[in-house]
């Protein structure tokens, strides 16, 4: 029989309330051992919870849900107790003493939900992202995946593949009669439309872009005002600023959200050909590496001398700076003027790079399986052998099934569910 698992699903104690979740065949019996009797299913009730000696451990709200119409697909019981460390620990000890009941591994509740078909793999991934979401944009994208938006899209493609397969089957059935395996008119078009839809989804930004944030690297010669601008954008004194050329020698990065969009600001050592000491020279090498990794480079140096594609910023606008004609942004970290405009500019750029707000975006793993599906579909042409068409459609469908976790391997599952904390 399946183990019954439990865990503190709320934040770590001490807290006002602690929620202990129990899931599995013995969940309801385990709760009843502590509470003596139970309210009706799906109705909350207040009960004294006792240990095996009959000592009252806490007076708490209890509720239970009969499976399979639950979050895990199993029977679930919940204890909403006082969130003190000792209260929670006494209840956990008592629960551990109930036979067939043990503490849950990280992500085990969600893994059961997946195993019992309550959610598919794409929804589980969305849920993992939702729990780690730190900005509004991350939350909305994760919500869309967790809510099944992405799965519905993939299911739609899968239905279209099934429809195409049916046409191939029909063509094969008739083929002995006149030796012509004619695919119906429209087959080629439907196939290429489907390929086009999947291709455009693949060309859209990946979900990881949202998770990792947009990397904005500040570059320029020593003393061009990079660290000062870095601090002004962060609104804190994270980086050392001084009149001495070569103040910043290492790469400093800080995450920040503008308009709910996650950014990583990166301050670098000023670039110079000579006069730099050993440590600064290493820093300059690192700065150049950062330019390669950057999504956006803000160039504070002389016009046209920055890495290609960088945004020209005229810094120190309160005093004579480089006086760049082509500077898109003119800022003064000393007075703050132009900083808000620069931030809006960063937001605009980020929106072009990131998935559209509220739309579920495919992550790297999902994109990989989508690319396999696309590859199989692209190999189909009207001139191909009908049997080969059928096989390719089947391969494409298998890839989409893997995306949704219908044929997932243990390592994929371990990697995903390991991302969850205990209690989820
Ligand atoms: N007036 C004025 N001075 C500024 C402004 N920004 C920076 N400075 C001054 O310029 C000098 C260099 O500033 P930093 O921010 O350290 O320059 P940096 O580019 O980080 O320099 P390195 O780390 O050495 O490469 C300091 O004395 C700052 O006070 C500004 O907007 N206006
Ligand atoms: K400096
Ligand atoms: Mg600096």
Structure, described:
By secondary structure, the chain is α/β, with parallel strands linked by helices. It has three domains: 4-104, Probable tRNA modification gtpase trme, domain 1 (Gyrase A, domain 2); 120-206 and 355-424, tRNA modification GTPase MnmE domain 2 (Four Helix Bundle (Hemerythrin (Met), subunit A), Up-down Bundle), CATH 1.20.120.430; 226-338, P-loop containing nucleotide triphosphate hydrolases (Rossmann fold, 3-Layer(aba) Sandwich), CATH 3.40.50. The protein has helices at 27-35, 85-96, 108-115, 121-132, 136-146, 149-178, 187-203, 207-212, 226-234, 278-293, 339-353, 364-378, 386-404, 410-417, and strands at 4-8, 15-23, 45-50, 56-65, 76-83, 101-103, 214-219, 252-258, 261-267, 296-299, 311-314, 329-330. The chain has a six-stranded mixed β-sheet. The protein has a six-stranded mixed β-sheet with strand order 8-9-7-10-11-12, with helices on both faces. Strand 3 and strand 4 (56-65) form a beta hairpin. Helix 4 (121-132) packs antiparallel against helix 5 and helix 12 packs antiparallel against helix 13 (386-404). The protein is flat, with a radius of gyration of 29 Å. Bound molecules: guanosine-5'-triphosphate, potassium ion and magnesium ion (MG). The site of guanosine-5'-triphosphate has 24 residues, from helix 9. Magnesium ion (MG) binds at residues 226-227, 239, 247-248, 267. Mg(2+) binds at residues 227, 248. It is found in: Cytoplasm. Residues 121-421 form the MnmE helical domain. (6S)-5-formyl-5,6,7,8-tetrahydrofolate binds at residues 21, 78, 118, 424.
């Amino acid at each position: 029989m399946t183990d019954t698992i439990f865990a503190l699903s709320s934040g770590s104690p001490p807290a006002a309330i602690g929620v202990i979740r129990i899931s599995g065949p013995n969940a309801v019996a385990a709760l009843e051992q502590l509470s003596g009797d139970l309210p009706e299913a799906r109705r909350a009730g207040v009960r004294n919870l006792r240990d095996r000696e009959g000592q009252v451990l806490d007076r708490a709200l209890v509720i239970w849900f009969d499976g399979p119409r639950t979050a895990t697909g199993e029977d679930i019981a919940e204890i909403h107790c006082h969130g003190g460390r000792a209260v929670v620990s006494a209840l956990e000890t008592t629960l551990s003493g109930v036979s067939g009941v043990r503490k849950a591994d990280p992500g085990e509740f969600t893994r059961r939900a997946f195993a019992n078909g309550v959610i598919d793999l794409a929804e589980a991934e969305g849920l993992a992202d939702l729990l780690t979401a730190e900005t509004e944009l991350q939350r909305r994208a994760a919500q869309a995946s967790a809510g099944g938006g992405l799965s519905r899209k993939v299911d739609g493609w899968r239905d279209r593949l099934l429809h195409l397969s049916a046409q191939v089957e029909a063509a094969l059935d008739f083929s002995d009669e006149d030796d012509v395996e004619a695919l119906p008119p429209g087959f080629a078009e439907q196939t290429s439309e489907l390929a086009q839809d999947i291709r455009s989804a693949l060309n859209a930004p990946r979900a990881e872009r949202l998770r990792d944030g947009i990397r904005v690297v500040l570059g320029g010669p020593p003393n061009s005002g990079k660290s000062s601008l870095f601090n002004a954008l962060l609104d804190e004194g994270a980086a050392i600023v001084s009149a001495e050329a070569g103040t910043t020698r290492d790469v400093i990065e800080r995450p920040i959200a503008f308009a709910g969009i996650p950014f990583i600001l990166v301050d670098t050592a000023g670039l110079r050909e000579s006069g730099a000491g050993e440590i600064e020279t290493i820093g300059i090498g690192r700065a150049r590496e950062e330019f390669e990794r950057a999504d956006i480079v803000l160039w504070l140096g002389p016009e046209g001398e920055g890495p290609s594609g960088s945004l020209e910023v005229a810094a120190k606008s309160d005093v004579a700076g480089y006086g760049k004609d082509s500077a898109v942004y003119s800022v003064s970290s000393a007075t703050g003027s132009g900083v808000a405009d620069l931030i809006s500019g960063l937001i605009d750029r980020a929106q072009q790079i990131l998935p559209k707000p509220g739309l579920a975006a495919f992550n790297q793993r999902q994109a990989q399986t989508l690319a396999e599906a696309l590859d199989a579909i692209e190999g189909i042409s009207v001139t191909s052998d009908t049997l080969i068409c059928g096989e390719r459609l089947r391969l494409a469908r298998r890839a989409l099934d893997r995306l949704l976790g219908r044929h997932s391997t243990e390592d994929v599952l371990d990697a995903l569910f390991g991302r969850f904390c205990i209690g989820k």
